[in-house]
Structures are given as C-alpha cells and as structure tokens.
TrEMBL record, chain A:
<dbReference type="GO" id="GO:0046872">
    <property type="term" value="F:metal ion binding"/>
</dbReference>
<dbReference type="GO" id="GO:0016491">
    <property type="term" value="F:oxidoreductase activity"/>
</dbReference>
<protein>
    <submittedName>
        <fullName>Tyrosinase</fullName>
    </submittedName>
</protein>
<dbReference type="Pfam" id="PF00264">
    <property type="entry name" value="Tyrosinase"/>
</dbReference>
<feature type="domain" description="Tyrosinase copper-binding">
    <location>
        <begin position="55"/>
        <end position="72"/>
    </location>
</feature>
<keyword id="KW-0560">Oxidoreductase</keyword>
<keyword id="KW-0186">Copper</keyword>
<dbReference type="InterPro" id="IPR050316">
    <property type="entry name" value="Tyrosinase/Hemocyanin"/>
</dbReference>
<comment type="similarity">
    <text>Belongs to the tyrosinase family.</text>
</comment>
UniProtKB/TrEMBL annotation, chain B:
<dbReference type="InterPro" id="IPR010928">
    <property type="entry name" value="MelC1"/>
</dbReference>
<protein>
    <submittedName>
        <fullName>Tyrosinase co-factor protein</fullName>
    </submittedName>
</protein>
<dbReference type="GO" id="GO:0005507">
    <property type="term" value="F:copper ion binding"/>
</dbReference>
<dbReference type="GO" id="GO:0042438">
    <property type="term" value="P:melanin biosynthetic process"/>
</dbReference>
<feature type="region of interest" description="Disordered">
    <location>
        <begin position="114"/>
        <end position="133"/>
    </location>
</feature>
<keyword id="KW-0732">Signal</keyword>
<dbReference type="Pfam" id="PF06236">
    <property type="entry name" value="MelC1"/>
</dbReference>
<keyword id="KW-0186">Copper</keyword>
<dbReference type="InterPro" id="IPR023199">
    <property type="entry name" value="GriE/MELC1_sf"/>
</dbReference>
C-alpha cells in the first residue's frame, strides 16, 4: 500500500498531533536516539582518505532516502497513519511559519543559550532530553537565521537552478564537484561568506543550534527537511528519466576516490542496500 | 578495510586524551626540544573564553582541544576542515575551524562524541560503534 508524504503546511491539527505523538513515542523507547547515533556514526568528510557513505558523496541522496524510510517505518509501527511530512523552505521561509508552532516543531532558541522553550520538543516539557550530541547540552537548540551573521533560507530560484542539472553526479564525486545534481542539492560551493552554503547545507545553517552539527537528527525538523530534499530528488528523477545514479561502477585503483564512494550496485552501511535499490520509491510512498 | 590502523590510532588517542587532564596535555603539546622544528599545527590561545590548544597528533593529522576536550578536525577535499559542531563550514586552517566551533558552542562543553565520529571502514561492514566504547 503506497502512502503519501504531505507538505507540513497542509497537515490538519490532528495530523500534526499524531506525527508529534509518534516521534515522542520513539524518543521514549530509545529508538529515536539510535537514529541520532547512526547519523553521527556515518558522518565522514571527504579529505580524510576513507569511505564516505552519507555526506560529501554520491550516495548522500540514497543514503538519506533509506534513513528516512527506516525512521518512517519505526513511526508507522507506532501509528500506521503517520508519514514524514516535508518542509518546503522556499515557501515557509520565516520564523513565523506555522511549522514552528507550539503544537508542532516549536520555535526558535532563546538568546542566552539557544534553548528551544516552546513546543513538544522543549526540554522543560520533560520528553525531549538530548542523549547523543557533540556537546554535553541536554536541551534542543536553534538559532534561526544566525543573527550574528545573517543568512536566508534557499529561494525557489536557487532550487530551480539546481533542477536544471542534467547529470546525477560528476568526478571527483565529493564536495568539490563543480556540477551535477547531487552536489548542487547537497549545497557545497566555493566562494566567500554565505555564498558557500547552498540549498540543503544552507537550511542546516539557517536552523542552527543542533541542526548545524553531527547531532542534527536531535532536531525533529531534520526529518521534514530531508523529506523535502528527497522530494526534490524525486521530482528531478521524473524530469530526467534517463539519468541514473553515478558512478555506475566502482572507481578503479588509481582513481583518487577508489574505495571511498559507493557505486550504483555497492551496498551502503548500515543497511546493506545499494543506491540502485533506492532509486524508485513509487511502490512505497509518493509526495503530495 | 581502508585505514583501520589510522582509525584505531585516532580512537585510542581520543580515549587517551580524554583520560588525561587538560593541564598535562598542555605541557606535552608545547614542550619541544630546543632546535626541533616548530609543530605546524600548534596553537595555544584563549578565544571566546575558551582555551584552544592545537598540535600534531600521532598519525600526523592536526588535533585540537577546547578546554582540554578533543574536537575532531575533519579534513575536506577543498583543503579545509570542518568540525562536528559545524559540519557545513570548511575553514582554511585547524585554528579557524576550532574558532568556528567555539562560535557555535555558546555555553556548552564538548561531549565525548566531538573527539572522534564518523568512522565506518567498509561499505559492507556493520556498525562502527565499537570504537566509541
């Protein structure tokens, strides 16, 4: 049975409550923190001379598609009517957007310590204690728009530019790939100041706090952000039916990326699925 | 397996520095035999109310401590470094990356995960979590 992922702005009050309740239940059982831990474990940078499976790499998109599917499966074991909604940040681009409501994601962090004080994920509510993070802080933090060096969310025009890419990914298959859909969407770019932070990366920076670092999954908006990134990839796939995942074959000995990236039919840890197996989601979910 | 030895060394080192006190590490890092070349990754400064200490680790890669706690400097293909606190800003030097992390830290202290993370070694390998134990 194919289920639907909806735009979070179109959820009813009841749908918002059910999603939040399922997330809180996963947190209560400890399952949520295992997802946090997985994301921490698989973050490796592209100058470190070892395999990268989740970021700065062609498998950024299929790895996160599988990661979301696993999270969604866990949510749907709690409540079979729930799916992961998406946050279209080109449209809901303000701290006043309904996504940050007290009945959903909660609001910005306070100035003194960036602690989120409103909504179901505020530490004071007693149900959102941070277990795995890069600091010893126990509360969720956010810093919308980074006031000390302001940055805006990506625009529709910027996203349209990414959608005009015709090839999935290009050599050297990392954060310095000058073209290709994957790196343009992931958002690594040369330049100065905020120019360096594009699309997916820019959203992590705009939310700030825990979303900026290795513990980004601690902020439930992570899932809504990545649901939209996955939607963008899905739409791009529809527009470019002939554009398969690249690299198609494992890179040969002598290539600088030899054994550092996953080719089309190589398994991605920790699940063992391949990028090719993640390419078509139409029998599992669709986007509204 | 790509670089298990390096990973193991880094993990062991992270454990070792965690076990030491910040003061002892400071002496180890800055004590250089006279005439020896200066450590290219050395820094020792106060920034944002934090003590930043940098030096070359056992595998030749730069190591940073913030108030005595290890901060993983992750090398990027553009020649810069990101840290577990700020995954999205590649900074040109270890010191710049450490300062950028402190800018985002606020009042928080680094956790044990900030010293070393992201260490899967093989696409078919299972959980890399053992190194965190």
């Amino acid at each position: 049975m194919v289920y639907t992922r909806k735009n979070q702005r179109d959820l009813t009050g009841a749908e918002r409550r059910k999603f939040v309740a399922a997330v809180l239940e996963l947190k209560r059982t400890g399952a949520y923190d295992e997802f946090v831990r997985t994301h921490i474990d698989y973050y490796s940078a592209d100058g470190e001379g070892r395999l990268r499976i989740a970021h700065m790499t062609p498998s950024f998109l299929p790895w996160h598609r599988k990661f979301l599917l696993e999270f969604e499966r866990a949510l749907r074991r709690v409540d079979p009517t729930v799916s992961v909604p998406y946050w279209d940040w080109t449209r809901d681009d303000s701290p006043a957007s309904s996504i940050w409501g007290e009945d959903f994601m909660g609001g910005n962090g306070r100035r003194a310590d960036l602690q989120v004080m409103t909504g179901p994920f505020a530490h004071s509510g007693g149900r959102w204690n941070i277990t795995y993070a890069m600091t010893d802080t126990r509360f969720l933090t956010r810093d919308f728009g980074r006031p000390r060096d302001p940055i805006a969310l990506p625009t529709r025009a910027q996203l349209d530019e990414v959608m005009r890419e015709r090839v999935y990914d290009v050599t050297p298959w990392n954060s310095t790939s000058a073209s290709g859909f994957r790196n343009r969407l992931e958002g690594w770019a040369p330049g100065r100041g905020n120019e360096r932070f594009r699309i997916h990366n820019r959203v992590h920076r705009w939310v700030g706090g825990l979303m900026l670092g290795g513990g980004s999954v601690n902020d439930p908006v992570f899932w809504l952000h990545h649901s939209f990134v996955d939607l963008v990839w899905s739409r791009w796939q529809q527009r470019n039916p002939g554009a398969a995942y690249l690299p198609a074959e494992p890179l040969p000995l002598g290539d600088a990326q030899y054994r550092k990236v996953a080719a089309r039919h190589q398994p991605m840890a920790p699940w063992g699925v391949t990028p090719a197996e993640m390419f078509d989601h139409s029998r599992v979910y669709r986007y509204a | 397996m790509i670089v298990p030895r390096r990973v193991a060394l880094r993990s062991l080192f992270a454990l070792a520095v965690t076990a030491f006190t910040g003061g002892a590490l400071g002496r180890i890092a800055t004590r250089t035999p006279s005439g020896a070349p200066r450590d290219p990754h050395a820094f020792d400064e106060m920034y944002g109310g934090r003590h930043l200490l940098g030096f070359t680790g056992p595998d030749g890669a730069p190591v940073a401590l913030v108030d005595g706690r290890p901060l993983h400097l992750m090398r990027c293909a553009d020649g810069g470094y990101v840290t577990p606190i700020d995954h999205y800003e590649s900074c040109p030097t270890p010191l710049a990356a450490t300062r950028a992390a402190v800018d985002e830290l606020g009042t928080a202290r680094l956790s044990r995960f900030a010293g070393a993370h992201g260490v899967p070694t093989d696409p078919t390998g299972g959980s890399p979590r053992g190194v965190h134990a």
